[in-house]
From TrEMBL:
<dbReference type="InterPro" id="IPR036250">
    <property type="entry name" value="AcylCo_DH-like_C"/>
</dbReference>
<dbReference type="InterPro" id="IPR009075">
    <property type="entry name" value="AcylCo_DH/oxidase_C"/>
</dbReference>
<keyword id="KW-0274">FAD</keyword>
<dbReference type="InterPro" id="IPR009100">
    <property type="entry name" value="AcylCoA_DH/oxidase_NM_dom_sf"/>
</dbReference>
<dbReference type="Pfam" id="PF00441">
    <property type="entry name" value="Acyl-CoA_dh_1"/>
</dbReference>
<keyword id="KW-0285">Flavoprotein</keyword>
<protein>
    <submittedName>
        <fullName>Acyl-CoA dehydrogenase family protein</fullName>
    </submittedName>
</protein>
<keyword id="KW-0560">Oxidoreductase</keyword>
<comment type="similarity">
    <text>Belongs to the acyl-CoA dehydrogenase family.</text>
</comment>
<dbReference type="InterPro" id="IPR037069">
    <property type="entry name" value="AcylCoA_DH/ox_N_sf"/>
</dbReference>
<dbReference type="InterPro" id="IPR046373">
    <property type="entry name" value="Acyl-CoA_Oxase/DH_mid-dom_sf"/>
</dbReference>
<feature type="domain" description="Acyl-CoA dehydrogenase/oxidase N-terminal">
    <location>
        <begin position="6"/>
        <end position="119"/>
    </location>
</feature>
<dbReference type="Pfam" id="PF02771">
    <property type="entry name" value="Acyl-CoA_dh_N"/>
</dbReference>
<feature type="domain" description="Acyl-CoA dehydrogenase/oxidase C-terminal">
    <location>
        <begin position="250"/>
        <end position="378"/>
    </location>
</feature>
<dbReference type="InterPro" id="IPR013786">
    <property type="entry name" value="AcylCoA_DH/ox_N"/>
</dbReference>
Length: 391
């Protein structure tokens, strides 16, 4: 492994950072999340059409740039510094890799170029609150999370040769605005029980939900006799594909969280150098220096883990969840210290430090929590096999 960035990777980071620095300040973020889409369409058009972010990790044959997951992760690190609300995570990190892995040639040829250009956004819809389970981040995903038997979750049935979906999916990232939904559904009843993925263009009733992290809008999707198209072939290893995408997504999310943690640390260091107490800048107090030094070490450790996970994801190594746990913990610590060291103003909801604190808490709710990410990584590595653990 060569830990140095290439000239192309450095250029991606620099370009994305410059664009977001000019167009994604705290007030821009707050204005964007109040729109119907939950993000700034003009900024998304710039990120997609001019910088090509949705197609970074897609093959050139489908209109992509042909880079690896590492380049997408590095771009996401800069997006996390905003934190910039956009459909990049739902479209390019979760949905597009599933289309590439499972879709037929016709499906890939139709949809991936539109995703790469930013024309089409997509979202992954799984039943209830099972996103982390479906992506195999907190345990195995070959159970009945999609809805076992004849009730619960989302059910798929063949009606006169066509697939129809029934059920409900909650916490669908960007589900209220996505032009395409990838819906995980249970099919076959008890006799041929299996989980399949379906393409849904007319998603029925969508309701945008109130979210702790307003920069990650999500929706509840109710499917009542909705027509759907099977993604790929019946019999494909859907849980395996979801687990592979989950590992890659965790690496990208880890880099995004590191970018957010680095940004909030920068702002906190800047503030303590300006705020005075007893005639001195509070940043000169040893206790404050020690606290920020601990945060710095935490962020740098998480950055190393996230970069390694992004590289390893390209080699098929399942270490994304562990890196994500480290990064979310670093972000939560950096945001909490930032709120405290900003004093009275830091405790108001209007301060930008809360955007980062809510991002850490919201991502733990969606993809964690941290202790379960680590526990699953330990189980997968067989860390405690044959040992008695005292309780």
């Amino acid at each position: 492994m060569d830990a140095r960035f290439t000239a192309e990777q450095d250029e991606i980071r620099r370009t994305v950072r410059e664009v977001l620095a000019a167009r994604c300040g705290p007030e821009d973020v707050r204005a964007a999340v109040r729109t119907d889409a939950g993000y700034d369409p003009a900024l998304w058009a710039t990120l997609a059409k001019q910088l090509g972010l949705p197609g970074l990790a897609l093959p050139e044959d489908y209109g992509g740039v042909g880079c690896t997951i590492t380049e997408l992760a590095l771009a996401s690190e800069e997006v996390g510094r905003g934190p910039a609300p956009s459909p990049l995570l739902s479209t390019a990190v979760l949905a597009a890799p599933l289309l590439l892995a499972l879709g037929t040639e016709d499906q890939r040829a139709e949809l991936l170029p539109r995703i790469a250009s930013g024309e089409l956004t997509a979202a992954l819809a799984v039943p209830g609150t099972a996103l982390a389970t479906a992506l195999a981040l907190v345990g195995g995903n070959r159970g009945d999370w999609a809805g076992g038997g004849r009730a619960g979750g989302v059910q798929a049935r063949r009606v006169r040769g066509a697939w129809r979906l029934y059920g409900e999916a909650g916490q669908v990232l960007d589900g209220h605005s996505a032009g395409l939904l990838l819906v995980a559904a249970h099919a076959g009843g008890f006799a041929r029980s299996r989980t399949l993925l379906f393409l849904v263009r007319d998603a029925g009733l969508r309701t945008r939900q109130t979210a702790l992290d307003v920069t990650r809008p999500r929706a509840r999707v109710r499917l009542r006799d909705v027509e759907a198209e099977l993604l790929g072939e019946d019999g494909a290893d859907v849980p395996g594909a979801l687990a592979a995408v989950g590992n890659r997504a965790a690496a990208v999310l880890a880099c995004e969280a590191v970018g957010a943690a680095d940004r909030v640390l920068e702002r906190t260091v800047e503030y303590v150098g300006q705020r005075e107490q007893f005639g001195r800048a509070i940043g000169s107090f040893q206790a404050v220096k020690h606290r920020l030094a601990d945060v710095y070490v935490s962020v740098q450790t998480a950055r190393s883990a996230a970069y390694y996970a992004a590289w390893a994801a390209g080699q098929g190594e399942p270490v994304g969840g562990l890196a994500l746990a480290q990064a979310l913990e670093a972000l939560r610590t950096a945001a909490a210290e930032g709120i405290q060291l900003h004093g009275g103003i830091g405790f108001t909801w209007e301060h930008e430090a809360h955007l980062f604190f809510k991002r850490a808490a919201g991502d733990e709710l969606l993809f964690g929590p941290v202790h379960r990410l680590r526990a699953h990584a330990a189980d997968a590595a067989g860390l405690f096999e044959g040992r008695e653990v005292a309780v």
